[in-house]
Predict the 3D structure of the following.
Amino acid sequence: MLDETRIRLEAIHYVRQLRERWVAVPAAELQHFPTGGRRVFLKGQQGIFKPAELTDPLSITSTLDSPYTDDPIEGSRVLYDFLPPSREFENTGLKRCAEAELPLIYFLQVKRRPSPEYVIFAPVFVVGWDDTTRRFLIDLSEQKPGDVSSSALLLRQLTLPAIRTPDSPMEIGELSTSYVITTVQRRLYQARFRNAVLDAYRERCAVCGLRIRALLDAAHVVPDHDPKQVIEISEGIALCGTHLRAFDAHILCYDADYNVRIELPERMTIGEGERSMLLAFAGKRLELPKDESLWPVVHVSSRA
């Protein structure tokens, strides 16, 4: 039997590596991970999941249509409803995770089927629960209870609100710092921003027309500061990985007529093949959304 602690830590390491590659990870990448010569499943369709190799749950999956979680996330924490009495054993497992301070993985769906995508938080911890309102309090700050983000709680049994109000839950506001709040909210915002921009551009690069979603991202044409309440698609543009990096390096930009401009620095050492590849789209008009109100802002992103 594989060591349970090692399996848990390897699972967390695996999904964090995936997170480095994608703002929102495709579901196809989240089926299982290799460890000890076998494949261990990471998640269920939704809810609390425990692979056969572990005694206690490994992950929690919240779908866009899930009845078990509230959105938006408050600060760095989320309220998660108990599963129904018929699945009380799963609630009990999550309580054991809280008592033992076991690290878990939290999958938050940000794109619907047929090709769902998830924002990943790992490690996360169950701070406590309320048997009256039948809710868990889960900390997404990726810090163990009692570390920088929050003070340690003496009791795992908490008093949590049955119905969310603009001022609740008070525990969330009081136990989260501005840094971890910004980190959690930014990760969610970036995934939703990417999703909205790619949808507007019909999942293709505005420069070369590449249509492979996994290779596309949303570039910010307006300085990216704190997450906003409302996503402005005109502050982004869909680009493939190559053209996104060229855009960020100020090699690729576009003019007021939405024509591509390539500006190679004089001191840049570049081969003829690379030069030809970059200049191939110079002067080409961007492939833009049908709705002109969604076209990217010009005065900020055009670089003279």
Notes: Confidence is low (pLDDT under 50) at residues 148-154, 161-181, 300-304. Helices lie at 4-21, 88-100, 170-175, 178-200, 241-248, 272-279. The radius of gyration is 22 Å.
